């Protein structure tokens, strides 16, 4: 095979509960991931060495050196297979960069699936999941997709049943936020407040809302422990969230570590109207309507 293409979705966190800081610098989480229909595409072509090219919106903000997650993923896969392989990776980005929607993780997951196929390795999904967990906390979910709860760093996943399709609007911000900085701000705020950090627990009403497909109940139970930290670093996001609520969003939340804001709509028509209202009022410059859950990294 000389070329393969993989499509990988973005995610929004419908519950992100952050436990105490661990000794390894990570936090134990209860992280409910939900894959949505904004996709990056990763093409892998036969080559002598592993290289990456990034096209599309914000592509200039993606590192092309050894920090690039798709390159790291391809290298980790070659190492796992115990051989030196090459691939030209060409990424078409639609997921915002450093936007709190797992764009980098999606590209890593895409590179794993694409190179596994290109190189004819035939590694089982479980092996890819293990390599994914070493690459980043959100990479296993980008492989899996759907809706799932992540514990540990967020990499230990259990799938969650959903009773229907949910319709979302995402307000994309100019410029990203560093995940590590948002977690650090969360720790700083907790230290200042002196409040005891409790062990994170899965929200029962949220699971019920997902299971029954009840968008109103899901909207009422969205939660994100990183939101206060993201708003401290980007105060203007508070007005974006407020505007979405005023225009009838069932729930409005910062996506992961931000700065993308996520709004839950009643249905596809409401999502389109909400997206238009957010841009017309100037609350957001760019909006995207999407639905979830969708499948994880998929070979086309
Ligand atoms: O795992 P990943 O490299 O995507 O995480 C990026 C950063 O986010 C980490 O370096 C850490 O600062 C923070 N993080 C955390 N706890 C987690 C996941 C991520 O503190 N469970």
From TrEMBL:
Protein's pathway: Isoprenoid biosynthesis; isopentenyl diphosphate biosynthesis via DXP pathway; isopentenyl diphosphate from 1-deoxy-D-xylulose 5-phosphate: step 3/6
Catalytic residues of the enzyme: 11, 138
UniProt xrefs under InterPro entries: GHMP_kinase_C_dom, GHMP_kinase_C_sf, GHMP_kinase_N_dom, IspE, Ribosomal_Su5_D2-typ_SF, Ribsml_uS5_D2-typ_fold_subgr
Domain GHMP kinase C-terminal: 206-283
E.C. designation(s): 2.7.1.148
Any one GO MF annotation of this record: 4-(cytidine 5'-diphospho)-2-C-methyl-D-erythritol kinase activity
Name the record gives this protein: 4-diphosphocytidyl-2-C-methyl-D-erythritol kinase
């Amino acid at each position: 095979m000389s070329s393969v293409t993989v499509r990988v979705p973005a995610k929004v966190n419908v519950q992100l509960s952050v436990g105490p800081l661990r000794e390894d610098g990570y936090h134990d989480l209860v992280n409910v991931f939900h894959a949505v229909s904004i996709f990056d595409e990763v093409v892998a072509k036969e080559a002598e060495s592993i290289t990456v090219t990034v096209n599309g919106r914000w592509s200039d903000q993606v590192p092309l050196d050894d920090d690039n997650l798709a390159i790291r993923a391809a290298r980790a896969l070659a190492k796992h297979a115990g051989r030196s392989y090459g691939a030209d990776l060409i990424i078409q980005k639609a997921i915002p960069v450093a936007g709190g929607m797992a764009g980098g993780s999606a590209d890593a997951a895409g590179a794993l699936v694409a190179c596994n196929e290109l190189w004819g390795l035939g590694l089982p999904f479980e092996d890819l999941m293990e390599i994914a967990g070493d690459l980043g906390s959100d990479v296993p979910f980008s492989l899996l997709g759907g809706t799932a709860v992540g514990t540990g760093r967020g990499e230990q996943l259990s799938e969650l049943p959903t009773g229907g399709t949910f319709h979302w609007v995402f307000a994309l911000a100019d410029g990203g936020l560093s995940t590590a900085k948002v977690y650090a701000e969360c720790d700083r705020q907790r230290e200042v407040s002196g409040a005891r950090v409790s062990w994170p627990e899965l929200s029962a009403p949220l699971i019920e809302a997902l299971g029954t497909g009840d968008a109103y109940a899901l909207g009422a139970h969205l939660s994100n422990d990183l939101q206060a930290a993201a708003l401290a670093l980007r105060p203007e996001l508070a007005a974006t969230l407020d505007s979405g609520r005023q225009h009838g969003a069932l729930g409005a939340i910062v996506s992961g570590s931000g700065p993308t804001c996520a709004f839950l709509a009643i249905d596809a028509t409401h999502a389109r109207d909400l997206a238009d209202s957010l841009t017309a009022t100037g609350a957001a410059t760019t909006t995207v309507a999407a639905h979830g859950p969708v499948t994880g990294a998929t070979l086309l």
